[in-house]
Structures are given as structure tokens and as C-alpha cells.
Amino acid sequence: MITKMTKYSFILLTGEAEAFLKRLQDLGVVDISRSVRPVDAASSAMLERTAGIKKAISILEKTDYSKDPDYEAIREAAGNVSVPDDLTGFCMNAVSDIERLKPKREQALKEAEERMPWGDFDTAMIRKIEEAGYRLGWYKVHKKKFREEWADGYPLQVIEDDGTYVWFVTVCKDVENSSFPLPETAAPGGSWRESMMKAEEIGKLIIGAKARLFRLKEYIPELQETYRKEAADLDLYLAEASKTLTAENMVTVFTGFAPKEDEDRLCREFDSMDVAYVKEAAEEEDNPPIKLKNNWFARQFEVLTGMYGMPVYSEFDPTPILGPFFLLFFALCMGDAGYGILLILIGQFLKRTKGSMARLGPLVTILGIGCIFVGIVLGTFFGINLAEASWVPEWLKKCMITGEVAGYSAQMVLAIGIGIFHICLAMTVKAVCYTKRFGFKANISTWAWLILILGGIVTAGMALLGVISEPAIRWIVIVLGIVAGLGIYIFNTPGRNPLINIGAGLWDTYNMATGLLGDVLSYIRLYALGLAGGMLGGAFNDLAAMLYDGIPVPGLDWLGFALIVLLGHALNLAMSCLGAFVHPLRLTFVEYFKNSGYEGRGTAYRPLTRDIKE
After folding, report:
1. What is the CATH number of domain 1-33+250-291?
2. Tens digit of pLDDT for each residue in 465-494?
3. What is the pTM of this model?
4. What values do phi and psi take at 307, rounded to 5?
């Protein structure tokens, strides 16, 4: 759910503004209204400086020359690098030099490759020959077209013959040279050795620039500390820059937001500061920041909501619905109970680490638990088909979904059924939430589509089960059609021209028919990914068994078996986790959010604090 916010307006003397904001930093719960972009030249410079430090840190963290062919030269040169006080500028200059010199070196090497057939020659001697009234003709011709008799009529010297092409030159007077039976090739601008020397000189400059970055890696902790300080100063400055000055700049007014649950504590603090303030409940028009408040389970999935975008203040928090369905989708895509056990172990390991990885530990553990239960239902354990295994109890096999439904795989039908339910739930959420936000009159068409689709599915289900008679079904279909048709085509926008409403309804019908079909079929990926992962795991098992049977040496057969099983399932686990994360996320962000009307344009709650987290 979305935490209710209280809006505060603070009024104080301008000279007290900086001290007041520092007190708010200590409290760490008040989100002062900030400018979306730098508000003046000073904040622009601060932002540019902070961003430059962050970029330098990112570059240095990624810098790794251990596999560079010039690694030893780079490391040796790094020992002679003198580091100035401006670490950021020094880093960016080195990066700029590398980016500038690399194309030049590549061009020099390309020139050397082109000039190689012409060999190493003295360009000064060539100029002397031309000054004496002679002219060199440079030629490259396919070997099949080269004629030895050309040497009888022209002063000709073959320079290179690689079996495919022949490079040669002629030395003639200008008037004589024009009669040679081949068009000339462009003369080389210099010798092969000159190009190689140029490439080597540029390479030395690149090594020097890389050595500067190599040396700077030692200063990453210092840059990180500087970044944290600059970010905190910028955060404080932007908060102060958002103030409104009144009474000839003698009084300052701030606007901020804080959770309603902290209202009593904050009021006591503000009273002790002797500052005038006004508090009121935040409204949608105030565009307050969004802080999500969920139970322990749903809180693990808030990171996924944040990836798409926070809800606006009057919108609904999609996390309580997103969490269970993402867990289900992830488990279906993994489709293996054995991999669920491994994920639980990975999650427990992550919980014992530090930083952002530790926060992912509970989520990975939850996903692993879901994979165990869903994997048992699907009948797969480390690629083993549990439904066919003799050691699996019969009562457990009865819990597995196997066989076919109407000629289709039962698991595929399950995936489509889940998709239909997921989309119907999204449409229900949209109808309820949009009605709450904009009123029933503006959402008649939304309710009409919901009645038509949901009513049609329920009616079809009852008909298949034989719960109601055919005449009753006929009347239900007629009533649904009339009610939905009026809402979709006639009253979709009350007060507008009926003909326009009909046209809009027809267009909406086309979009709904094509869109819903594609959305439902998208859920087949849940079945396909789980099936692919299970089949690949089984293939590794079969390969390991074949290797075990094919090695007659005792001990070595088990070693080969273990290597294939461990490496194969590790690879399959990695690929399955990637697919099981990306595709459920797509089903949520595209199919569900689109049909639920979720916007995700809210701003995350970011209180003014001294603890700036990346």
C-alpha cells in the first residue's frame, strides 16, 4: 500500500535556512521538494562535478588490463605516474587520450598492412627520381592478368608476388608512362616501416594513458568518499534552492513531505526548533513522494515495482499482486524442484553478505521455495521426470499435472488459464481503481468490457460443466451482449455525439480483440521455458549416464558422471534463472500493467538525510 503523507510548509528567517536544513538531515524523514534539474549555475556546477566523480569511479572499477597484451608495460609505466590533486580530471583526460589515440593507431596499422607489399623504401630517393624528370608508376594486378612481356617494352620491376596479385613499378618519362596498358594504383604515401613506426609511437602513448588509469585504481576509495560528500552537499543545496523567498528575501518558506506515522514525533522536533510551520494531509495535486508499505513478503518485490516506476499518490500499489504472480511465473519458468533447493541455498548465502546483494537474499529464498512446490507439481527434479520415477510415492504423483486436456498438454493449458485469470484480474483492478479516481461515468466502457469478458468466461465455464441449461445460457449471453454493447458503443463517453461513440467503440473493439489474444498467448512462455529447462536438465542427466557407461575405469567413470552433472546443471540453472526473471517481468510490465491501467509516474520517497545511498 501507499503510505499516507503529511505536507509541511515551514516559514523561517532566511539566515536560519541552512541550519534548519541540516537539522532535517539529522531527522532523515522529511522529503523537501526538489527541483527536477539544476536550478542555477552553482547547482549545475555541483551536479556536473558529482556526476564526473561518479563516472570516474565507474571507469576505474571496470578498468582491468590483466589480459591486455601490454600488461607488463602498463604496470611498469604506472609506477612512474605522478597523480595530481584533480583525480577526476586526470582520469577523464586519460580516457579521452585512449579514445583519441586508438583510431589513429588502427589507421596506422591499416596503412602498414596496405603498404606491406611495397616493402620498405626511401621516400627521399623517390622524390629525387621524380625531380630528375622520371616518374614511377605503381601497379597492382591479378596474377592471371600479369604479362611477362611487359618488361620488354617498359622499365618494370616486380616488388611482390603473393600468388594471387602482383605488385610492380615502372620507371618512365611522363609521356612514355601514359601508354602503359593498365591504370595506375594509388602510390603509397610512405613505406611500410614508416607506418609501423607511427603505430608503435601511438601505442606507447596509449600504454601511458592506460598506465594513468591503472595507477588511479588505488584512489577509488578516496573518490568514493569524495562522491558521498559531494552528493550530500548537492542534496542539501537542491533542497535549499527549492525554497520560496518572500518579504524581500527576509523570510524563507520550505515545502516538504513526511509519512503520517511520523507526524507526532516531527511536530515535537519542529516545536523545539522554534520554527513556524503548517501541516496538512497531502493531496494528489501536491504530487507527494511515494513510500510503499507492505508486509514482509510483498516488501521483497518492491524492487520490481521500482524498476517500472512508482505509483502516483492516488493510484494503487501493484506490489501485493505483483509479488505472488511473479513468484508463480518464476517458478513455472524454472519448472524444477531441485533448482529451487539450490536457490534457497544461494539466498541463504546472499543474506550473509553485505550491501545490495544481502538485500536480495530473502527474495531469492522465496523464489526457491516457490520453485520447489511448483517443480513437484510439474514433476521435475534436477531434470528427472518424477511422474515416471519408481521411487516417488503414488500419493505425490497424484499431485502432479500430467497428460493432456482436449488434445493439448495439461501444463500448457494451465499456463494459458493462469494468463486468462491474470488479465481478468488486471481488468478488474483497472475498473475499480479508475472508478475510484475518475468516477463511474468516465469508466462505463471499462466496466462494459469487464462484464463482457469476465461474464463470458464464467458462462462458458458453467456451460462446459453442465451447471445451467442451454436456454439459460442463451439468455445470459443475450443480456451480456446488450449490456456490454450499450456501454462500449453508446455510453462509452456520455454527452458526446453517439456516432463518435460508435466509431470509438469499434476502434476499441479492434484493439481489444487483437490485443487480448496476443496477451493471452504470451503466457505460453511459462510452459515453454519450464519445458525447455526440464528437457535440458534431462539431457545432461542422459549424457552423464552415457559417459558413466562408456568409461570402463572404476572411479574415472564416477568422476566423468559428476563433472557432466555439476557443470550441466550449473549452466542450466544460470540460463533458467535468466529466463525466469526476464519473462515474468515482461508479463507483468506489459500484459498486466497495460490491462490494469497502471501508470507508474510517481516519485520515490527520498528524505533529506546525511546517509546518501547509491
Report:
1. 3.30.70
2. 777 778 887 888 888 888 877 877 777 777
3. 0.65
4. -65, -35
